[in-house]
Description:
single chain; alpha+beta; 2 domains; 1 helix; 21% strand
Amino acid sequence: MKLTASIFSLLAGVLVGAVALGGYWYWQHDTTEVWVAMHTLQSDNGIVVPKGTKLVLKRWMPEGFAALELAINVEGETLDQFQRDTEQESFLRIPYFVYAGDE
């Protein structure tokens, strides 16, 4: 009787884990909206987003603009070219607004 209860508990745990993992995978790996810059864009700070750059829509902001993400990979000796700081708030965003530049 104890062996049957143990096997049932094990199978129930595996089933619940599989359902939870499947749900997590489904909700985290839904579709992603990708935006492609049709023109070269530039910010007031001089940041240039070349034509054809792909950006991922993070979310629409209530103020009426879209927050897009751009992933930049840095490796090797280039890592030493950055000054690194730590900020207190984990949801820190550093926004840059871009405008159509000269092509």
